[in-house]
Amino acid sequence: MNGLSAALRVSLAVLLLLGLPATARADAYGLAPTGTTKFVEKPATRETLNQLRRGGYVLYLRHGYTDNTKPDRATGVDLDDCSTQRPLTPDGIKIAARVGEAIRQAKIPIGEIRISPLCRVKVTVAQAFPGMPYTADVNLMYTANFTDVEKAPIIANTRRLLSAPVAADTNRLLIAHAPNLMDLIGYFPKEATLVIFRPKGEQAGFDYIASIPPALWAELLREERK
Q: What superfamily would CATH give domain 6-224?
């Protein structure tokens, strides 16, 4: 958790010493600027699904429902020991499978999958997309217990993955945590919510398009059958 490079720490210090405004410092490291307006969640529509079928989007899925009576170990989690981490509930395992099945029913193409290395995310991807290859990315880790300096490379990486272009006929899928998006854009999606972004390139960033909470899938798929 405290293993950030000396270069990163020095760079942050230099920005502060230069007296750059908070928004400039935030943008340099992919952090959400302060003083922004409250985030407004937009529900996806049938047309959203049509857009996703054409590809070119980034999908950010928060892991399934978790057991808050078993929090991450206060002294730090061990990535190789799931008992030190907040687990999915039985319903969380089921909802992960249902969300994955809904994505397949909607015929949304998925290409690259990158996930947080925490166990609750590994279980989510195994249930939602069984057999599909994925990359565990330490820079998609849960940020809630980190300092701003420790968060910086994670939020910068998330911003990069949301911004980098995606080929037509496929979509990039990230499976991670709500605090990461809260730090980046001020949005704390509920568990098992799929958040949709349009990448515009690493310099231009990305646009938030819509969200699909787990309960919305049934309505969207029902409209598809009409």
A: Phosphoglycerate mutase-like (3.40.50.1240)
- DSSP secondary structure letter of residue 191: T
d(C-alpha 47, C-alpha 60), whole Å: 18
At 106, list the tokens.
Answer: 């909607």
Interstrand relation of 172-176 and 58-62 (parallel, antiparallel or unpaired):
parallel
DSSP 186: S
Query: How far is the C-alpha of 64 from the C-alpha of 61, rounded, in Å?
Result: 9
Q: Cβ atoms within 10 A of the Cβ of 148, count?
A: 13
The two beta strands, 113-115 and 206-212, are unpaired
pTM for this entry: 0.84
Q: For residue range 133-163, what is the model confidence (pLDDT) as tens digits?
A: 999 999 999 999 899 999 999 999 999 999 9
**For 19-78, what is each residue's pLDDT tens digit?**
333 333 333 333 444 455 789 999 999 999 999 999 999 999 999 999 999 999 988 899
Q: Hey, which residues does 11 pair with through a beta bridge? A: none
Helix, coil or strand: residue 77: coil
With contact defined as beta carbons under 8 Å apart, do 147 and 8 qualify? no
Name the residue with tokens 């958040």.
Answer: 195
| Amino acid (one-letter) located at 213 | P
